[in-house]
Amino acid sequence: MTAEQVNINLPEGSIEKKTTRLNLGPTHPATHGVFQNILEMDGERIIKAESTVGYIHRAFEKLAERRPLYQITTLTDRLNYCSAPLNNMGWHLTCEKLLGVKTPKRVDYLRVIIMELSRISDHLICNSIVGVDTGAYTGFLYVMQYRELIYEIYEEVCGSRLTTNMGRIGGFERNFSNTAFQKIEKFLEEFPIVWKEFENLFNRNRIFIERTAGTGAISAERALNYGFTGPNLRAAGVDYDVRVHTPYSSYEDFDFIIPVGKTGDNYDRFMVRNEEIWQSLSIIRQAYEKVQAFKGAEADVYHADSPEYYLPAKADVYTKMEALIYHFKIVMGETDIPVGEVYNCIEGGNGELGFYLISDGGRSPFRLHFRRPCFIYYQAYPEIIKDTMLSDAVVTLSSLNLIAGEMDA
Amino acid sequence: MSITHDFIQEKLNNQFGDKILNWEESYGMLSATIQHDHNLKVLTFLHDEPSLGFQFLTDITGVHYPERKGEEIAVVYHVHNLKENVRLRLKIFVPIEKPDVYTATGLFSGANWMERETYDFFGVNFIGHPDLRRVLNVDEMDYFPLRKEYPLEDQTRIDKDDEMFGR
Questions:
Q1: How many Å apart are CA A85 and CA B112, to the nearest integer?
Q2: Are residues A68 and A160 in contact, defined by beta-carbon separation less than 8 angstroms?
Q3: pLDDT tens, A164-183?
Q4: pLDDT level of residue A4 (50, 70, 90 thresholds)
Q5: pLDDT of residue A272
Q6: B135 contacts in A (CB within 8 Å)?
């Protein structure tokens, strides 16, 4: 048998076409989430990108308009699901600001421990995924076991792992168990060694530096104009951190620094997140010592004294009249919340996570708006990846730490 | 020197006079209600005036007040002076029949999607916006879901028979 040569008949004019349209997403292994980008490609170079979001929009703002405050916590879990406790705490702090609930110091410190743990888990995912996208899978698998340990701590504190629904307005649902403290100790002991190894693998790795340095850069000026916050803004050299600017949950009691980058490229974002993990570890250590310093009755405080919003102990519900009434009113969501308008923000995993809550005095918010840092900085993506290679665009996507849940609300 | 609320009020009142309709302070944040066609002028002044320096746009969102006849839709801006760490809230009210508002995209690139989101949920028409399309909802949607005339489904209804989800 002889092979016969067949001429390929190209459609008229097709050879003249200089650019190709490429569809990246909505579901693609390299996007780590549901986003679509329609890329106009010249060879391997992107000349234009158009982003589409909203594939997992779940109407949280509308749903929140019917729910009593404590039921909205479960909605906040599903925003940035890599650091759900941060969102939970941000929401509780917003409610406490509106309701005028003052939390005891021990609650603040326990919250700080949890918030910094979830910041570590958020940054850990982001940085190890940057590793995966640049071809280093090992780091990701290796550090993942410490996210597992963080999740075990969550489990010990609140009973669940990913969508935590952790805490209540005024504090935590129960005191931290001894096992929880032991696990925190274990984490503080073992994780730094592992993270040092992870850093050794990447920080001075030539392949990694060549893939990340100088790609996906944004200047400080443009980043501010786009409303960047969090590690992505700090990588561009602006030292804005909500924890320092407007301390909440007693962050003013802790000693830590805000790492900043210089060029705002993928490498700086990676390094800023790395350093923030070290800072978070130091904050957890300080908070842990402060928590251990409470003695006597103070060592058992885990919630504020606000019976109108904080569920009473189950034993009291069965035996005391007031407790039963409060239990019923809280569970049925029949406590009217005060009239007011409050904007409260915390430093989330990705930046300033804000809650704009308007109450008209009913049982649920009149309007609730989430300021989702992801949604705001993702619009800069087409500008960042313009005139870069496709493979760099994928690294940029993961180094911006885009979480579809947070973006689409 | 930190910028006080009194200083901001004085500056804006001097510049815009009766175009600032109302001042209030709630939970530590100063809030100004502006005549609806002056939003961009006030934002530009806040941005460019060196003694104010509100150069960071935190958020844009909408609110629907069905009871306020003739000014049902509110557009709320949160701006932030990062150096002095002062925040300011600006509000404008527009009628629901003609929710026309000037866009802030020329001043802040980040306003683009925030305004698209506000359009998406409240139908606010941002005049001059480069690409005013829906952002989170499907393009075919023909209503603005966060308006109050669209209530959530009654949780107690029993006329549905859904084999999959059992209700």
A1: 30
A2: no
A3: 989 888 889 888 999 999 99
A4: confident
A5: 94
A6: 53-54
Chain A residues with CB-CB distance to B57 below 8 A: 227
Is pLDDT above 60 for B25? Answer: yes
Token match 């489904």: residue?
A: B153
Which class in CATH covers the domain with range B5-102? alpha beta
Residue of B nearest to A56 (CA): B136
Is residue A14 very low, low, confident or very high in pLDDT (cuts 50, 70, 90)?
low
Pairing status of strand B73-81 against strand A340-347: unpaired
- Domain covering A61-408: architecture: Orthogonal Bundle (1.10)
Q: In degrees to the nearest 10, what's the CA dihedral of B128, B46, B89, A62? A: 20
CB contacts under 8 A, A 169-228 vs B, are 222, 224-228
**Ranges of each domain in chain A:** 19-52, 61-408
Bridge-based pairing state of the strands A352-359 and A340-347: antiparallel
3-state SS class at A45: strand
Cβ atoms of B124 and B62 closer than 8 Å: yes
Answer yes or no: do B108 and A53 touch at CB < 8 A. Answer: no
**Confidence bin at B93 (pLDDT 50/70/90):** very high
Dihedral pair phi/psi, residue A138, rounded to 5°: -55, -50
Contacts of A240 in chain B (CB under 8 A): 82
In this prediction, residue A298 carries a pLDDT of: 84
- Closest chain A C-alpha to B50 CA, distance in angstroms: 16
pTM of the predicted structure, to 2 decimals = 0.90
**How much of chain A exceeds pLDDT 90, in percent?**
49
**Helix, coil or strand: residue A304:** coil
From the list A97, A352, A409, the residue facing B58 with the nearest CB is A352
For residue B25, give the H/E element and its range: strand B20-26
Cβ contacts of A66 on chain B, cutoff 8 Å: 152, 155
pLDDT at residue A299 in the model = 84
What are the extents of the domains in chain B? Answer: 5-102
* pLDDT at site A187: 93
**Quick check: B132 contacting A, CB < 8 Å?**
no
Nearest CA in chain B to A224: B56
Cβ–Cβ gap A356/B78 under 8 Å: yes
The answer to whether B29 contacts A343, with C-beta atoms less than 8 Å apart, is: yes
Of the residues A369, A372, A384, A402, the best mutation for testing chain B's interface (the one with the most B CB atoms within 10 Å of its CB) is: A369
- Closest residue in A to B74 (Cα–Cα): A367
- Percent of all residues in chain A with a pLDDT value above 70, rounded to a whole number: 97
SS3 state at A38: strand
Rounded to 5 degrees, what angle do the CA atoms A340, A345, A346 make? 145
Interface residue of B24, B58, B83 to substitute, partner A, most A CBs within 10 Å: B58
Instruction: Flag whether residue A238 sits within 8 Å of chain B, measured between CB atoms.
Output: yes
| Chain B CB contacts of A366 below 8 Å | 63
> What is chain B's mean pLDDT, rounded?
88
- Each residue of B121-130: pLDDT tens digit? 999 999 999 9
- Cα gap B88→B79, rounded to integer Å: 5
Comparing A28 with B79, the larger pLDDT belongs to B79
The mean pLDDT value for A202-231 works out to 91
